[in-house]
Predict the structure of ATP-dependent helicase DinG.
Amino acid sequence: MAVGVDVRELLEAAVSGINGQTRPGQVEMAEAVNTSMHEGSHLLVQAGTGTGKSLGYLVPALLHAIEDRRVVVSTATLALQSQLVDRDVPALLDATEKLLPRRPKYAIQKGRNNYACLHRIREGAPDDDGMLVDVPPPGQIGQQVLELRDWAEQQLLDGEAGDRDHAPSHQYQAWQQVAIAARECLGAQKCPYGEECFAEKAKEEARKADIVITNHALLSIDAFENRTVLPEHDVVIVDEAHELPARVTGAAGDELSPQMVERAAKRSRRFVDDDKADDLIDASDALRAALDGTREGRIEPSNGPVLEAAALVRDVARALYSDLNKKTDDKDDDPDGAKRQSKGAVKEIFDVSERVAALSDLDVVWMVDRERFGRELRIAPLTVAGLLRELVLKDRTAVLTSATLTLGGDFDAIARQVGLRPSDKLADDDEMPDVDDSSETGPLPWRGLDVGSPFEYEKQAILYVAKHLPPPHRDGLGQKQFTEIIDLVTAAGGRTLGLFSSRRAAEAATAAVREATDLKVLCQGDAQLGELAREFVADPETSLFGTLSLWQGLDVPGSTCNLVIIDRVPFPRPDEPLMAARQRAVDEAGGNGFMAVAATHAALLLAQGTGRLIRRSSDRGVVAILDPRIVTQRYGAFLRASLPPMWPTADREKVLGALKRLQST
């Protein structure tokens, strides 16, 4: 379909329609995304905060979709996914409607567990013995389940989506009573409520849409399921792309615990001889005993008892699944769907235990001891670069964008993580070469573009490194660090976001400031994170201290946040099994594992954390890093090159004076 408008004209109309102002970086981004879509090259584009990144990729996506070529947009979180669907895309379509030959259709698609399941609501959820129980558990959770059931039925009557984001307030346990995992779903053909199913309706809407908004988790599942989850598309735009490797790792990972095995066994008892279900319970006991005799950390070939227990679980689960599979095609054999759900649970146990027992060189297996739930095994890919290359990037065009994609000053680190080779990078004036997409090892040409930020970081922000402090140690923060934090927060008059490497450090710093001052300090864990963030924004003199979940995604513009404190360079823990295994693999391949894994991980988090300070062109403030290693160690140059270009200093008195002046303005 011919479109008589170019990307620049459409962008201007879009920005005007939302009463915004076109920014040079946004125009450059939109034109580069448009070029990438037309020539078929991959694009990594860093668009700093304030660029207008969403319109920078949505406008060319609109042009592409109008030509009857569907575009999938993947976001890091369900919240960002909803923001695009509820606000950004409708506003864009309203602003550009007169310039386009038709109004493109858009839809949102989430994982099945994000939609209420009418079968589970009307027939009940299975208990540990496989019985479908219609009575909700007593207490607050039970009341929430009843409210969710009523809400889902009303959603159906009103023609609404039935997705969790629009549900009444509830806890995770309550939602699990009204939703179902994909593996346990009966399927639209067999489910008595298949024609009404919320998840199936969402899939159907996505098939009709020109632009489909999804999330990294579902994009990963679609890749692993041979692209049968999302509708066909030839372009994927990955927003917040710096999170993609971690999300794919999560989607490709699994857990195996004695409780999971025992639960699956009890749910199958209704459909098989007791002896066969008891065999799986015995296998769960063997797994528990093996884990009790194992230290936390990575499972190696020398961990014979654990691997033998996993193999036992695998063999028993295989036999049990085979028995459950008998007569499944008989429609009268499973009238309430409980047997299919039991099969799904046993099949999951078999799949995970088989993978654990194999202990492939491509996987990392480790044991963790959870405080409330006991010991469990976890497994994840050693790297997801190959998976992303073959399953996401091959045979279609990908645009990957974020405010933080250049680490150490270039795109190479992120490119490697997502499956792109630095050797395949195209220069600005290179033409797209002919590529044989059928070749597994062939090149995947890509470009990197940094469109900068409209903010003047050198004038708006100070990067203060407390060089006089001792390097951090394993015992946590010391008195010198506490004194520094107290003095900084006092000079700022509160207005501080404290980003700490551990919950213990955040709590200790909170206690120190509360004891030494009258300033109000909120600490992660005092209440739900959303509630703490709202309270932090509402009172400029309040401070908020916390850990990893505050390092990215928190938007606090204005005088609410004049100071960001980072207690230490956020390297992964040396005993973190997956990161340690990845680092060792790089070393064994002849590379620098520390720089490729630990330093890259730290650089990305530092870039995200420092990015909490300047959110608007009027913002001013200080990022204070209490770890001198960022200027005293050789890797410090790599870390600093990953940060916005703030004005650097180690002069404590200048920083305290600047914070006091900001407090008085």
